[in-house]
Amino acid sequence: MMVLIGTRDSKIKNGKIIAVECPKCESKASITYNVYSRYTHITLIPIFPVSKIIDVECNNCKEIFGYENLSEDIKIKLQSEKEINILKTPIWMFSGLIILVGYITFWMYTNIQTNDKTNVFIQNPILGDVYNLKFTNGYYSTMRIDQVTKDSVYATQNDYDAYLQYEVDEIDKPENYTNRKVKYSKKDLIILHLEDEIFSITRN
Q1: Which residues constitute the domain of residue 168?
Q2: For a FRET experiment, which of 88, 90, 124, 159 has its CA 20 to 30 Å from that of 116?
Q3: Looking at the 3D structure of the chain, how many domains does it have?
Q4: Is 109 inside any structural domain?
């Protein structure tokens, strides 16, 4: 997927001012002004506005001027336009930022919920629990609980490792648990969780 980052302009207001002198044809004519909001976007999704832009068109000679090329008289009249002074940026130009904040909030909530469940499950392991593991070499994997006794847990480690944390779900398949048998005390499991080597637990 191609990601496009850039800026775009969107017209948010236009209007007319009468009896001002055109900087080019010097006639006393009316001018039409346009106000644009410039915003940044990622793949055409607006993130946030960065500036407002005003251009002016003479209704006599049809020449278009940027704000910086206008006479002081026209600038003063533009600044006195109440609609421009109170003009608010449309909320949709913040849509990408709103989505990002929503995603971060959801991620934080989900992470808290996962941690709460893991804290409960690690205290009471049961048959069939799948422990998601992070190794010191940076790889990720899983192990499945096969038997639980009073003090110990017997498990089978996954035959495969994953490069990224979210990929552990893809390797969590029954056929991937074969001969890598391990045994831990229940206290050892709690220590591994505190050291983030067990980062989550899946319980059906």
Answers
A1: 121-202
A2: 159
A3: 2
A4: no
The residue assigned the tokens 């995603």 is 103
Here the tokens at position 82 are 């109440």
User: Stretch 109-113: mean pLDDT, rounded?
Assistant: 83
Q: Which residue has the tokens 């629990």?
A: 129
Q: What is the pLDDT of residues 129-163, one digit of tens each?
A: 999 999 989 999 999 999 999 999 999 999 999 99
Q: Using CB atoms within 10 A of its CB, is residue 66 exposed (0-12), middle (13-18) or buried (19+)?
A: exposed
Pairwise CA distance, residues 131 & 186, whole Å: 13
Report H helices in the chain.
72-79, 82-85, 95-123, 168-171, 186-194
State how far the Cα of 168 lies from the Cα of 172, in Å rounded to an integer: 6
Taking CA atoms, 65 is separated from 56, 58, 78, in Å, by 5, 8, 13
Residues 9, 69: contact at Cβ < 8 Å?
A: no
Buried b (16+ CB within 10 A) or exposed e, 19-42: ebebbeeeeebebebbbbbebbbe
- Per-residue pLDDT tens digits for 98-107: 999 999 999 8
Give tens-digit pLDDT for 2-56. Answer: 667 889 899 988 889 888 889 889 888 899 999 999 999 988 889 989 988 889 9
